[in-house]
Every structure is written in structure tokens, then in C-alpha cells.
Amino acid sequence: MRKTYRYRDLDFPVDDATEVKLTVEFLSDGGIAETLIYRSIGNNPKISDSGTELIGTGAELRGKITICITEATNSNLNEDEIRVRYLLNDTLMVEHHNLKSEEINPTIILFLKFPMP
Amino acid sequence: MSSFKLFVLLFPSIFLAQEPLAQLTTPTSPAAALLDLNPTVTLAPKSYQALETALYSNFVNSNNETVIPTDFALEFTPYWTKNHGLSITEYLYPENLGTQLLRSSSVSIASTQNFVLGDSTSTNALGIGYRASFFFPNKKDKAIVEKSIGEIRNDFNLKNEIRAPAILFLEINPEASKADFLKEIMPTVISEINKSKHFSDPEELQKFLNKFEAELLALPEITPATKDAFLDQFSQILDQEYQTYRLISNFEEYLTRRQGLTLDIGLATLLNFPDNTFEFSYVPKSSLWITPSYRFTNNFDFLKALGVFRYEWYHDTYYDRYFPDTFVFKNNLDYGISIISEFKRFSLQFELIGRHSSSEISIATDDFGNDLFRKETKSDLQYTGNFSYNVTDGIILTYTLGSRFKTIFEPKNTLISLLALNFGFGAPTTNDIALNKK
Hints:
heterodimer, A: 117 residues, mainly beta, 1 helix, elongated, B: 438 residues, alpha+beta, Porin, 2 domains, 31% helix
């Protein structure tokens, strides 16, 4: 069975009016990844490999769980790990790392909450 | 006890704690080649490991006793020891030759304690080498790569679109039953699979959906404590149909056999310590390799043809002093071809190389005190075959048999019969684990 890496209880305090941007940054070389930022309100942004997407304002995200799910692999024959950072408004939330020998096709799931500061 | 078993006993951790690594190729570092540790002339393209070592020995001495090898080679590719955040396209298609040079540059060092001089003295010698590789993909390569990456991305997107609402549903409704879950999720599953056009036949789609639902119903009932395990099972059922790992493994396999032209260049120089002291050394010879290679396509993709051009320069003063009874040609040009056929775990290589040697020999001095020279030339032939077997993905065993060029010290001794072991180590990793990882 493929491994799923879950990162729970990730709180990012934010004001109602502040826009939140989520950044996926692959540090390992030559990865292939698709990330979906899923909220129950619809209009779910996607990021291919690395990139940044606006996911909503504090008010829109408040009181709900936002799921950030990444399916990744790395076909670089010179690389032996999968390493990826997740940032919210440039603040590091998670740096995921796994050896390719442990899982070549991991699923990484972040459970994000946006309380009042 | 066989030599190989002895090696396993000497270095058990290498065999017991192996992580799967990208497959190695036959050891051919420039430094080792210059020391004649590796008898083939072809400088085959380097493998993908950041660090490689090779031990060259038949593992037995003249009394048929097993021995620890005294000759070794090490090759190091600095670029791949750290991350650069390259995308798959940036990795596969470097924007210019300078980038390729930077990424493929490797430094090798080889050492032997058995560099025998003309008076039979064993001395220490060191080979120092450098090589770089340039790859020129053909149009077919780009089409294959684009298609493979596209298929992997489509699968990833489909799985995300199905899994994300399933995860969120159970996060919001931890007390939900299997029936609630199915009622919520099946419309998404149907809609996303329809969008993916994975099934061209509606009957097949319905058959899959029935099977998918039946397998989900057969899982244990969901509880707040088991919801993650349930979701993992849910993903596994999806993975059984959308076998992305096959796409990934096919793509990786293709990357080891990319279609196009590769050009390898190598330089190496030999350092000899004739009286085994560090303060006194000579540079007896240096070599330059240019190796173009081409991977055949379609039904012959297991075949690779390599051209060989090697120029070797010998320091004649050194050889006059330490090999007084021999004659060494100053300039040697080797040229020929090599064919490699690679199969799952083993490969065969045949090599046929010609050599043209030339030297200017001082014969007299004219009336004005100027040296007069005569040009001496010679031709020679080397042919070898070698068999390589990947013991594991990180260890390769190679046996070479053939006839080499006439050596300086023992021109009649042209037999090559050599066993070599090559080890590959991936780039070092810092095992910093994220604090939130659960």
C-alpha cells in the first residue's frame, strides 16, 4: 500500500481581510507533483509541481478545514529523496521529506485551519 | 570459501542494509582507466550515483589465498550532493551546454600499490581524472517524455479530486457510517472517472464502479479511530485500477535508456611515486577521451554503440629512467568501437580498439649541435569482452576477458582476466524530520 503522510492541526492565524497564499516548493530535483487545495466552498486551486495560489481571505477560510493534498513522485535518477515545503503567506508550515526507497509515490495531506489571531 | 563470499563477510553492511538505488553501470572512471585498473579503453557514460567506488582485484593471490584488494577507484559528482529545486523539465532538458557540464562533471581518483617499475619494484601510483557528459535528445525522446509526464499528472489529478472530498467528509463527519460515506463520495467518483475518459466502454465503467463499491462495502465499518485506515484502503482500491506506479516505473526505465546521442569527455593524469615518498613524484602519462554513444530505438533499444577516441601521452624521460630496457611511444592514439547490450540485470560489452603509436627518437647531432630525430610508428590491437551482473541495484560485478595492447613491461603478457566490484551511493541526505509529521 502506498504511504500517505498526514500533517494535522496546522493553524495559521489570519485577519478577516488578509488574503492567504499557499506556496508549494519542491526542494528535491526533478519531481512530478500535483497539488489540490480543497475547501468545501468550491473553486479549488491546483498547483503543478511548485507554485503559489491565492486560497481565499481569512474570513472565507475561517471555521472550516482546508485540505491540501499532493500526489508526488520523483523520476530523477540522481535524486534519492522527495522534499517539499508548504508555506502560507511565506510562513513555513511543513517541510515534508521522505526517501524514495521508502515511498516513490507519496500522498502528502495537510489539514489547515485559519483561526483569528 | 569463494572470493565473493569473503567480500560479503568483510563488508556485510553493504549487502544487508542496501536501499534500492538507481542501477550502476560498469566501472570506468577516467582515473582507474589510466592506472590500467580497468582494461577496457571505452569510457562508458557514468551512472547516476553521486559517489561510486570500485575495487579491482581477482581477490586471490599467487597462492590462491583470498586477499583484500589494494587497488581502488572512487568517482564523485559534486552537483548531485545537494538539492537545487529543479523541475522535471529543467532536469531532463538543461538549457545549455554549460548547465550540462556543471551537472555531469565528476572527479575521480584511483590508487594502486602495485605500479611495477622496470626493475620489478612495486610503487604507489595515483590516477586523477575528470569527466563530463552531454546528451542530445532526439524528437522521439521529447514526445515520449511529454506523454509519460502527462499521463502521470492526469492520474495524480484524478486521485486528488476523488480523495480530497473523501478526506474532508470524514474530517467534518467523524461519526459517519460507510453508507453515509458511499452516498457522499460515489457521485464524485463517477463524475471524475467519467471526466478522465479512462473507460471507453460504458459497460466496463459500470463493472468497475460495481466492483469499487463492493470492495468498499467489504471494508470494516468506519470509526473516528479508524477513519485514516479506511481512507488508505479507499485509496488502495483506486490505485488498483489507476496503477500510476506502473507509469512511474515505465518512465524511470525509459530515462535510463533515453534515445539520443551522448558525448562523454574525460581527462586523466597519472602520478607515480617511484621511491614511495610523497615529496618525489612523476607524471608518467596523461589521457584524453572522447566517447560518442548512441542508443538504438524500437526493437533494438537494448543495444548501444560507442565510438572510442583516446589520446595518451607518455613522459619519455620518466620511462627512460624507470623502464630502461623498454621503448615507450610518446604519442598513442586509440580508436575503435564498442557494442553494449543491456538486459534486466546483466549486460555484455564487446570492444575492438586499434592503436597508432608514434615517437620521435633522437639519433644523432649535426655539425651545428642540433639534435636529429627519426620518427618511429607502431600499430596494435586490443579486443575484450565483459560481462556485468547487478548483484543489487547498488552493486555491480564485472568480469573482463580479452587481449590487451602490448604492455610496456611485459609485452608478451596480453591476457586480460579481471573481476571488478562497483558500489554506488546516492547523494547524502540530512535526515531532518518535520516536527508535525505524524
